[in-house]
Amino acid sequence: MIIDRRLFKNIDWILLILTLLIVSLGIVNLYSAGLNQDTGRDTPLYLKQLYWLAIGLGLMVFMTTFDYRYLEKLAYPVYWLAVILLITVILMGKVVSGSKRWLVVGPMVFQPSELAKVAIILALAAYFYRQERFDPLSWRELIISCLLVLPPFALVAKQPDLGSALLITAVASTIILFVGVRWHILVTLIISFVALSPVSWFFLKDYQKQRILTFLNPEQDPLGSGYHIIQSKIAVGSGLLWGKGFLHGTQSQLNFLPEQHTDFVFSVFAEEWGFLGSAGLIVLYALLILWSLQIARSCRERFGNLLAVGISAMIFWQIFINISMVTGMLPVVGIPLPLFSYGGSSLISNFIGIGLLLNIRMRQFLFFSPTL
Where would you find the membrane-spanning parts of this chain (predicted)? Predict the structure, then answer.
């Protein structure tokens, strides 16, 4: 493989530095979150995350070594691979807390739903790129794009993992709205959604209904379904302006805060570093998203443009949902904070996305057509 040396001059150091700053803060925060949870573990949580980080960095570098436009031809094979893996999870996945979300391959355990997020972005980017038109979507094109989203959505929801299923929908919707939908179609969809939303209640499972009721009134069951969000809000609020200090968060160090190394990792950070620390982390995330969108805006090639928008949406919606969830503004749905929460599958999928953004930036001024 021959790599043009000019590409190294176009490495996006701002994107890379923002990513490494966030993930470094995440490792430090995991050290605190896992300090009193690692008793009896062979390897501390933060060290395991460092191992996944090494793999993620390797994959990020790999994603920059080829012209991203080759992925347009591989988009559908990757999509079907993700679908097959999701079916495999349903048939023979590892059950944890009543959900089948993980596949075990030797010593490794990973979530195919994380691959599905990237696969959906690739598939939609390839589909809209091949339309070779810039008019707003018709009903036919909209239905076809929705049919691409439906299998991964249904299979992830079946696990059940409603949070990831909704995230897939949010990312796909962002790409579709970016491409453009005719006004009468958009208005029809909005009216239909509002009208059918009450009906969807009857299709939810009991635990999903309970999550919504808990969101509306967590105090109705403070030691049961409302425990997670109540403890999370206490942790976030008790940080006040400056925080309690590193390793001095009472909610996390005394293990009052459940899932504090995954879904509620932001609560640990907010308690120890306070409003100012939390605001600083959110600013870093905002800069990361805005810079990712700037990469999408500056890309003069449609497939790369759509790909960058999709990756930006994937990272943004994870941030928005997780922080809204742990602060009580959304129901608890189990979405990790990207580059921050513990978890190899999430970290790897986000680093693949960052690698693609770097790839797009590096090649934005190259206009040759690759020989496929």
Answer: 12-31, 51-71, 78-97, 109-129, 141-157, 163-181, 186-204, 273-293, 305-327, 339-360
pLDDT tens digits, 232-277: 888 888 888 998 988 888 887 777 777 788 889 999 999 999 999 9
Strand pairing of 108-110 and 99-105? Answer: antiparallel
d(CA 82, CA 5): 34
User: CA–CA separation, 274 vs 280, rounded Å?
Assistant: 10
pLDDT one-digit tens code per residue, 81-95: 999 999 998 888 777
Quote the CA–CA distance of 353 and 372 in Å, as a whole number: 23
Report pLDDT digits (tens) over 279-298.
Answer: 999 999 999 999 999 999 99
- Nearest-angstrom CA–CA distance, 322 and 311: 17
CB atoms closer than 10 angstroms to residue 163 = 24
- Tell me the residue type at 348: I
Tokens of 182: 């005719």
Q: Are strands 108-110 and 94-96 parallel, antiparallel or unpaired?
A: unpaired
| Two structure tokens written together for 104 | 């075990």
Read off the pLDDT of each residue in 1-15 and give the average, rounded to a whole number: 71
Closest residue by Cα to residue 112 from 85, 79, 74, 148 = 85
Backbone dihedral region for residue 328 (phi beyond 0: left; psi -120 to 50: alpha; all else: beta): left
Stated length of the chain: 372
d(CA 332, CA 79): 28
Please write the tens of the pLDDT for every residue from 158-199: 887 888 898 999 999 999 999 988 888 888 888 888 887 777
CA distance 189 to 219: 35
Q: Which strand ranges, in their side-by-side order, compose the sheet holding 108-110?
A: 94-96, 99-105, 108-110
Assess contact for 361 and 371: CB atoms under 8 A.
no
Q: Residue holding tokens 């010593």?
A: 107
Other CB atoms within 10 Å distance of the CB of residue 279: 12
Show me where the domains of the chain are located. Answer: 17-195+218-362
Q: What angle do CA 315, 319, 324 make, to 5 degrees?
A: 150
Helix 302-326 vs helix 227-238: crossing angle, to nearest 10? 90
Query: Using CB atoms within 10 A of its CB, is residue 160 exposed (0-12), middle (13-18) or buried (19+)?
Result: middle
